[in-house]
Amino acid sequence: MADATLQHDAVGHSLPGEYEAPLFGAYSKKVGMWLFLASDSLTFGALLFAFSYNRIYTNPWPTPFHVASITNATIMTACLLSSSLTMVLGVFAAQRGDRAWMRNWLLATMVFGTAFIVLHGMEWTKLIGEGLTLPGFPKPASAATGELADVSKAVPQFAATFFGLTAMHMLHVTIGVIYLGVVALRKLFLPILGALWLAGWLLIPSDNVFHYGIHALLIGLIVSAIILFLKPKVYDAHDVEVSGLYWHFVDLVWMFIFPLVYLMSTKIS
Amino acid sequence: MHDTATHDDSKGQYFWVWGALLVLTAIEVVLAYNQVFEAVRMLEVLLILSVIKSALIIGYFMHLKFETALMRWMITVSVVACFIIMYFFFFPDAGRIIKLGVK
């Protein structure tokens, strides 16, 4: 990451005042992404504080996560942490001009990210099937009599904060996977994304919340197509590094959601 | 005002950071599942471990450790200051509700 920090002295302009060195010693795209991430961290910070606020004043707080849920969430955490490592290796490859390995590492990162989303989707489906629901949620018949149906009625703020917080994070991971797909594959990624959306929509049953949630991919497809067709370019090492910043941030946020939401609501059997 | 990128660019350190993050996660899971501490102490311990993990991610994976001092301080101080303000907005009221006995 030798070009991570710009050296002001390296800019050779002859006239005094002709060129003003960047204040933060970094190129503008990177500063822009950092500022976005700072603002996004406040979004997640507010959600986590709201979750904790509800948690403190609600007694007793539900503890629905059995060993299966904790194991699942731990594997999800390992997926995200491993995806951060592959992302770093992708940035290294981009900086040494090795486009093939840059693409490979970014695809590996996307695989880990997709595994996280799928595992999280399975966890949501299991919890909804057991009765942890919100008003308006599509749900299977088993939800009405599931072991968590009483939790949804007695402590509705548990389902609201759990789904609100994890949905926001899942959306960020989904956007991250699409972002990396655009950087790694460019227009080649569009039919892949379209196929994933169509397959998900047709295969996921209509009583599952992801039958509707999968339309996030369609929105991602439209936005990606607009970007790729209106501003086609070969993404360079700086673009890969900036996309990496976003991806690591998604990983970072999960490091707080995992203990606060899952580990503090562990059901000891 | 600015730092020069003189850090060690070897890949090895990133594998060490990844390993440390996995180990810290395993410690969190063991502590929580075995209920080693009572609830408030558990929350404190888990949050301390999360802050350490996030510092590793921000410092190494996000490379902030190697950015200029101005960038490091601007990002860190502004975000932490906002979190401190949020803390004083939310938590005294949560404690007040408990004392009032609102169910």
Salient structural properties:
heterodimer; A: 269 residues; mainly alpha; Four Helix Bundle (Hemerythrin (Met), subunit A); 9 helices; 70% helix; 0% strand; globular; disordered N terminus; B: 103 residues; 3 helices; flat
Strand and helix map with partners:
The complex is a heterodimer of chains A (269) and B (103).
Chain A: H1 28-57, H2 67-95, H3 99-129, H4 149-154, H5 156-185, H6 189-203, H7 210-213, H8 215-230, H9 237-262
Helix pairs in contact in A: 1-5, 1-9, 2-3, 2-9, 3-5, 5-8, 5-9, 6-8
Chain B: H1 12-33, H2 39-61, H3 69-100
Helix pairs in contact in B: 1-2
Task: Report the total helices of chain A.
Answer: 9
Helix/strand/pairing category of chain A: mainly alpha
Strand element count of chain B: 0
Q: What's the architecture of the domain at 22-171 and 237-265 in chain A, going by CATH? A: Up-down Bundle
Count of DSSP strands of chain A: 0
Overall mean confidence score, pLDDT of chain B: 84
State the low-pLDDT regions of chain A, or none: 1-11
Task: Sum up the overall morphology of chain B in one term.
Answer: flat
User: Biggest β-sheet of chain B: count, sense, barrel?
Assistant: none
The CATH superfamily label of the domain at 22-171 and 237-265 in chain A reads Cytochrome c oxidase, subunit III, four-helix bundle
Report, as a whole number of angstroms, the end-to-end distance of chain A. 48 Å
How many H/I helical runs of chain B? 3
Total discrete domains of chain B: 2
Poorly predicted segments of chain B: 1-8
Instruction: State the secondary-structure class of chain B.
Output: mainly alpha
- The percent of residues in helical segments of chain B reads over 70%
Shape of chain A: globular
**Strand coverage percent of chain B:** under 5%
Oligomer: heterodimer
Order of helices and strands of chain A: HHHHHHHHH
Summarize the structure.
Chain A is mostly helical and 269 residues long.
